[in-house]
Amino acid sequence: MSEKPVDMKKRSNQIFDTVKQTLFYYVTHGILNGLGFDEKEIMKKPLVGIASTWNEINPGHAHLNWLADAVKYGIIESGGIPMLFNTIAPCDGYANGHDGMRFILPQRDIIADSIEAMVEAHKFDALVTLSSCDKINPGVLMAAVRLDIPTICVPGGPGMYEIQFGPEKNYQGIETRFYENVELKQQCIKCATYGACSLMGTANTTQCLMEAFGMTLPNAATIPAMSMMKYRLAKESGRRVVEMLKEDLRPSKIMTKDSLENALAVDVAIGGSTNSALHLPAIAHEMGIAFDLEWFNEFSKKIPTIVNVAPSGRYSIVDLYRAGGIPAVMNQLSKHLHLDCITVSGKTIGRLIKRAAVLDDRIITPMDKPLYPEGGTVIIKGNLAPNGAVIKQSAVIDKSMLTFEAPATVFESEAAAINALATNQIKNGSVVVIRYEGPKGAPGMPELLAFTTALMVMKDLPKVAMITDGRFSGATQGPCIGHVTPEAYAGGPIAVVQNGDMIRINVPKKKLELLVSDAEIQQRLSKWQVPDANRVLKSRVLAKYRALVAPADKGCILDPNA
Fold first, then answer.
1. What φ, ψ does residue 232 adopt, rounded to 5°?
2. I want to staple 242 with a disulfide (CB 3.0 to 4.6 A). Which of 78, 138, 203, 540 is the partner?
3. Tens digit of pLDDT for each residue in 252-264?
4. Domain 45-159+194-353 has CATH 1.10.3720.10
């Protein structure tokens, strides 16, 4: 006996069923008639939502309307009715170095909420997401898990940087982004095309994780944003989501504990952004899984960094695509993966990667000759970070800085630290501590890329480390330690570090220690008070965020009980 066919309009029929015997039935039909759909279409074809994060604010999103058209064509070809809507999509680049950065991380959860609200209000039968940058990709995955309707993700893909040539290389075709000279590198950071910044920052990391989870078609993460292949993939995604609806293939069948482990394995192998330590726990929370940050250490110990892409390496995401993309990376990692995980294609990970080949082993290195012997992101703990802190060890180019002991120079904000750096108040051989930049303290847990970038180009400060309860960009290089928990605002030990206190960093041993006695730390904490505890935040968004946000080690989920 054949299986009962799936009712492809089970959800969207709800907008008619309860009002069939009333005049309002004709109002609902009239709305759809007003969009150009006739009675036959309305009653027979499924409604497929397209959640797009298109805007004209940054290159990462400006091309998504082009891809949305392709998705629409694919849905129509397969017998669905495409229903396009938009949600917000912030750009971290605009927000660095000022209060705007406080609003960036909170938008991840606003995006998830807005997609959930739109899809549930209109009872779409299936969903395609279009997203590109840092907080948006995890936001759409969180929404997909919540909604659990057939969903396929279309990542916007990487852009290309401006490539310039200089006389130092005698015009032999060596791009200046490979120069050791920082000034020459800076000539190449202009965005030459639409797409996410072409390095393994948070945007491309989370696009790669979408693919590793099985929520995209093969190679979707690294196909360049402005290539015709990206357009064709978007169209095929539109076609495929209707087939997924027929198969009842939903995120709960794709995003499992095993696929979460696949995503984590890929993350450490590609030298993924430290922000994964916020987003993977948040996605896992939506899946009903308690994510243990120690998993990063377990996976980094057994899986090396094999992707030679900046900031851990030399090349770009477009180069990674040329070398075989995420399928080739996963082929290299196959003994560490759950190969029977199903994907949106309807095929298993094992089947998809079986014939994926590494086309350039300078970019995707062999497992026995890795870029670095361990994975990218690790968690370090100690009396300065009892619940953990995060460092991208693969991006610490000067490996001598993986173990470092120096006196603290303490700042109560990033702005104060930037001012000190600009006025030569930070000395070589010190540990800069920037606090009250955590999820509640800022509030909003801003990334401190303005400071880390400025520090990176200071040639006379080669031996300076940074520790913060805030976060930093996946593009950050050097001994930068973030996500210190408990944060200063919550009374964590980082709140009572004093200028001159010795701090010991030992990344190989996963240790972060304030060389002050426990008794002294407790005495300082007994006298400590929350700064500006009674100050009323002008922003209602940030006030709500402070009230609801959980600590960084819980992924900054909005759950005051976490």
1. -65, -40
2. 78
3. 999 999 999 999 9
4. no
